[in-house]
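Support request from a user on the community tier.

User writes: "When I paste my structure tokens into the form, the page sometimes reloads and wipes my input. The last time it worked, I copied everything first. Here is what I submitted, just in case something in the input itself triggers the reload:"
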């Protein structure tokens, strides 16, 4: 799924380049009814090959992490990030043409990071650390420091990633669920109530079991006395 998602962006950009289609025709234009359809189309478009290349790797890596480790939450979270980021940019963004999937990429990276904070299990924390190591430099992109860059898409994408991480924080990881199901079917190594008994009680039960086994051995191996 992540590969298909990124591949579709490259196919779309190739079509636009070959047929010399201006992507601004399908861009998101804030507070204009004519630019409202850009909520759906603008993340699919890029200004040049460098723009597309820079967005492809975060989408591929973050998408793979979400798809394989947050399988139940991944698609609903990406849809929410996709739509609400565009809607927020349309309402609050500066006037101009907004295109590119960077807002979605910011949302996916933000989702993975905040999921590690909210879930607090080993896998989620490790995944959060991975995206921090790989994409900590993306924090700069949420500030209006470079002209021609839709920093609002980055900012609102990060916010929507936080929002979806909160919404889906109760959705367990598939691996955790399968481990729980397997553990119910397998025989336990310790008795379920072993920690509910005192040391003295366990010693008494051990002696009683030894005495019972001794009596059984005597009955089987010694002749009856008359």
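"...and here is what came back when it finally went through:"
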């Amino acid at each position: 799924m992540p590969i298909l998602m990124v591949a579709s962006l490259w196919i779309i950009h190739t079509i636009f380049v070959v047929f010399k289609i201006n992507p601004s025709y399908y861009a998101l234009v804030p507070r204009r009814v004519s630019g409202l359809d850009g909520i759906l189309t603008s993340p699919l478009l890029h200004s040049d090959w460098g723009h597309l290349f820079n967005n492809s790797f975060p989408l591929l890596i973050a998408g793979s992490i979400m798809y394989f480790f947050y399988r139940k939450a991944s698609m609903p979270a990406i849809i929410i990030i996709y739509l609400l980021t565009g809607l927020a940019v349309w309402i609050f963004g500066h006037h101009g043409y907004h295109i590119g999937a960077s807002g979605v990429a910011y949302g996916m990276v933000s989702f993975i990071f905040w999921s590690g904070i909210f879930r607090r299990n080993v896998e989620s924390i490790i995944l959060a650390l991975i995206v921090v190591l790989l994409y900590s430099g993306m924090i700069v992109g949420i500030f209006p420091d470079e002209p021609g860059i839709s920093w609002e898409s980055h900012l609102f994408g990060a916010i929507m990633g936080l929002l979806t991480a909160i919404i889906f924080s109760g959705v367990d990881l598939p691996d955790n669920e399968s481990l729980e199901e397997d553990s119910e079917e397998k025989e336990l190594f310790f008795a379920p109530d072993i920690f509910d008994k005192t040391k003295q009680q366990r010693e008494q039960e051990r002696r009683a079991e030894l005495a019972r086994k001794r009596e059984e051995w005597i009955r089987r191996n010694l002749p009856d006395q008359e």
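Agent notes: The reload is a front-end session timeout and is unrelated to the input. Residues 66 and 74 are 5 Å apart (CA to CA). The chain has one domain: 2-177. Escalated to web team.
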